[in-house]
Design a protein that fits this description.
Blueprint lengths: L1 H10 L12 H12 L7 H5 L3 E3 L6 E12 L5 E11 L3 E3 L3 H10 L2 E2 L1 H16 L3 E10 H4 L9 E9 H4 L1 H11 L14 E2 L7 E2 L2
Parallel strand pairs: 2-5, 7-8
Antiparallel strand pairs: 1-4, 2-3, 3-6, 6-7, 7-9
Helix pairs in contact: 1-2
The structure holds zinc ion.
The site of zinc ion has 6 residues, from loops.
Length: 205
């Protein structure tokens, strides 16, 4: 990887032997390996010791989970907040594992839509809850930095499964509980793109 990065620097018109760049290939390789570390993660090993049987069937919400990912189209960062909720049906996931799950899927070359649905589908398959809801708010540097469509560099995507898809009241309860976040002042279910229903995300200023 380091030789490729050295050649990339030359292609960019740089001199890879100048002092500031001399160790850049090594640093970039290390950074990229960390930022794509999700590929090597063993999801089962991480989650299986944190799945518990409980008699609890109220909504579990973990919100404002920070994530950092790389857009697969430009290899540039997109980042923001992720909110996850589910209604258990006899089994729960240890709360600290939910941000871990977000990290595992974020640390790859991603699309925000796929990130959103992978988080929801993993929780769904691991504990078979009554429903799962995931909302991801991301700022995309590939749009913001390149000066194109600056107004659309912020995107909100959602995946609603089970009762969150089927029952408007359950979905609204979740959206109410996450909406006092500053970036979601006017969000309601009609302005959200649902990954499960439509392919296109709604992008918002
Ligand atoms: Zn991009």
């Amino acid at each position: 990887m380091q030789e490729l990065i050295r050649r990339l620097l030359i292609e960019l018109g740089e001199n890879p032997t100048r002092e500031g760049l001399r160790n850049t290939p090594r640093r970039v390789e290390k950074a990229l390996k960390f930022l794509t570390g999700g590929y090597g993660a063993d999801l089962d090993a991480i989650l299986n010791d944190a799945l518990f049987t409980v008699d609890y069937n109220e909504m579990v919400i973990v919100k404002d989970i920070d994530f950092y990912s790389l857009c697969e189209h430009h290899l540039l960062p997109f980042f923001g907040k992720c909110h996850v909720a589910y209604i258990p049906q006899g089994r729960v996931i240890g709360l600290s594992k939910i941000p871990r799950l977000v990290d595992i899927f974020a640390r790859r070359l991603q699309l925000q839509e796929r990130l959103t649905s992978q988080i929801a589908e993993t929780i769904d398959s691991k504990i078979r809850p009554l429903g799962v809801a995931v909302v991801v708010e991301g700022t995309h540097l590939c749009m913001a930095m390149r000066g194109v469509e600056k107004q659309n560099s912020f995107a909100v995507t959602s995946a609603m499964l089970g009762v969150f898809r089927d029952h408007a009241r359950t979905r609204m309860e979740f959206l109410e509980l996450i909406k006092h976040r500053s970036s979601l002042p006017t969000m309601d279910s009609s302005t959200l793109a649902s990954v499960t229903d439509e392919a296109e995300p709604v992008t918002r200023r």
